[in-house]
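Design request, tokens follow.
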């Protein structure tokens, strides 16, 4: 089945959520009202053979990635980490020494990002062939009254990305998908600098094409990206950089012009937010041009964003 079909079903139930749920399924984190406060919460998982290859990846990096994937969702909301919880399901032959190494890596990574591991659960599969699964829940608080979600992009906003994209999954690359730094500090700095002008944000996990489309869809706008402006890693061409995913950089929208370097963070303006109903400056002048969530412009040609980025199959 395709992941998005199940997600459509999940989101359809959002209208029935209890009142204390301020942000329901569909953003990088949910948010609930507490007595006198607000809590952001999200869960993510890594499955051996799908998100990591246990044959080639040291367990220290497996444990690290299990935590940092979830921490990246905190960055996407400009949240401040509070604590994390981990549920692990091990194959029966995993071995206690390896399990200890995995746990230590998760605990250390969580502590390094001020998101201490405070609980969880361990289960053992029935079969050795069943994959290691680490499910990580993270708790955070918003940086201020304004909570940065995916649905706040406004017509006229610039579209920006942090860092460089592409090559994260290359076997001969730097292993960026295992060693990336979640942009938590940078997101909080962006929030401090931009405040309510930090209109919408997401972390790039599925690929720029799909993740920018998430912003466009949630915000009811259209996003045009100038492919030539995408900051690619050396040797990576833009289609690859926009589609591979697992960059864990931030994509955000804000009005006005931002400096290209903020707090030692490379920030690149790659596009603009348009009204979804207008065909804007489509080079082909087709009526459908403006209704696309994301369009990549590459010189004279344009490419719909939904043709880039990968769809999870499970
Ligand atoms: Mg995310």
């Amino acid at each position: 089945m395709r992941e998005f079909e199940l997600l459509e079903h999940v989101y359809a139930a959002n209208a029935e959520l209890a009142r204390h749920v301020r942000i329901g399924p569909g953003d990088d984190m949910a948010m609930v009202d507490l007595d006198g406060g607000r809590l952001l919460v999200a869960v993510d998982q890594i499955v051996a053979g799908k998100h990591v290859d246990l044959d080639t990846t040291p367990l220290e990096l497996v444990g690290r990635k299990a935590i940092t994937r979830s921490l990246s969702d905190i960055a996407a909301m400009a949240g401040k980490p509070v604590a994390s919880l981990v549920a692990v399901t091990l194959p029966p032959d995993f071995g206690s020494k390896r399990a200890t190494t995995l746990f230590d890596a998760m605990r250390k990574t969580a502590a390094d990002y001020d998101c201490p591991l405070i609980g969880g659960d361990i289960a053992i599969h029935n079969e050795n062939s069943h994959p290691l699964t680490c499910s990580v829940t993270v708790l955070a608080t918003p940086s201020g009254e304004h909570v940065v979600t995916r649905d706040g992009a406004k017509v006229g906003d610039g579209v920006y990305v942090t860092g460089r994209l592409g090559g994260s999954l290359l076997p001969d690359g730097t292993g960026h998908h295992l060693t990336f730094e979640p942009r938590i500090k940078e997101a909080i700095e962006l929030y401090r600098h931009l405040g309510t002008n930090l209109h919408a944000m997401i972390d790039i996990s599925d690929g720029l094409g799909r993740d920018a489309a998430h912003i466009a869809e949630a915000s009811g706008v259209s996003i045009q990206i100038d492919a030539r402006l995408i900051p690619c890693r050396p040797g990576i061409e833009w289609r690859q950089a926009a589609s591979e995913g697992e960059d864990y950089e931030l994509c955000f929208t804000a009005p006005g012009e931002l400096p290209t370097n903020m707090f030692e963070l490379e920030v690149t303006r790659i596009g603009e937010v348009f009204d979804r109903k207008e065909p804007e400056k489509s080079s082909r002048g087709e009526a459908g041009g403006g209704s696309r969530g994301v369009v990549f412009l590459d010189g004279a040609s344009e490419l719909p964003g939904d043709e880039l980025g990968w769809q999870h199959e499970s």
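Comment from the thread starter after seeing the answer: thanks! The CA atoms of residues 230 and 270 lie 6 Å apart.
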